[in-house]
């Protein structure tokens, strides 16, 4: 399946071990910025995710709507199947939404509920 979806990551989806387990491959990312959001942290209780990421505290973004707020991260090309795999990796504290990055590209990102 073609990698035709953009996924913005600001946290553990950038880790090689997480990518290999979640996608079965290493992703090549490009720097980008998510405007209108601020960074927070959440405690993860899912032991599988904690073991894989190596930490129980994960970053989580929340919308502010302010052009002054921004999150620096990486954008990755993934397939529809890989998006579904990332949905399975992310715990219930997160939901996937469509956003427009500072580069003008449309992408998916996981935000706090």
Q: Give the helix/strand class.
A: alpha+beta
Mean pLDDT: 95
The major sheet is characterized as: 3 strands, antiparallel
Q: How many strands appear in the DSSP assignment?
A: 7
Strand content: 35-45%
Pattern of helices and strands? EHEEHEEHEE
Sequence-ordered SSE layout with sheet pairings:
Elements: E1 5-9, H1 16-23, E2 29-35, E3 37-43, H2 47-53, E4 57-63, E5 70-78, H3 80-89, E6 94-100, E7 106-112
Overview of this protein structure:
The chain is an alpha+beta fold and 113 residues long. It contains 3 helices and 7 strands. The chain has helices spanning 16-23, 47-53, 80-89, and strands at 5-9, 29-35, 37-43, 57-63, 70-78, 94-100, 106-112. The strands form 3 sheets. Strands 1-5-2 form a 3-stranded antiparallel beta sheet. The chain has a two-stranded antiparallel sheet with strand order 3-4. A two-stranded antiparallel ribbon has the order 6-7. A hairpin with a 5-residue loop joins β6 (94-100) and β7 (106-112). The mean pLDDT is 95.
């Amino acid at each position: 399946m073609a990698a035709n979806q953009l996924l913005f990551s600001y946290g553990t989806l950038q880790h090689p071990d997480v990518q290999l387990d979640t996608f079965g491959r290493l992703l090549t990312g490009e720097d980008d910025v998510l405007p209108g959001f601020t960074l927070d942290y959440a405690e993860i209780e899912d032991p599988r995710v904690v073991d894989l990421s190596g930490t129980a505290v994960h970053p989580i973004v929340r919308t502010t709507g302010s052009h002054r707020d921004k999150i620096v991260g990486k954008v990755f090309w993934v397939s529809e199947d890989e998006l579904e795999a990332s949905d399975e990796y992310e715990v219930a504290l997160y939901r996937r939404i469509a956003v427009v990055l500072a580069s003008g590209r449309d992408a998916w990102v996981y935000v706090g509920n």
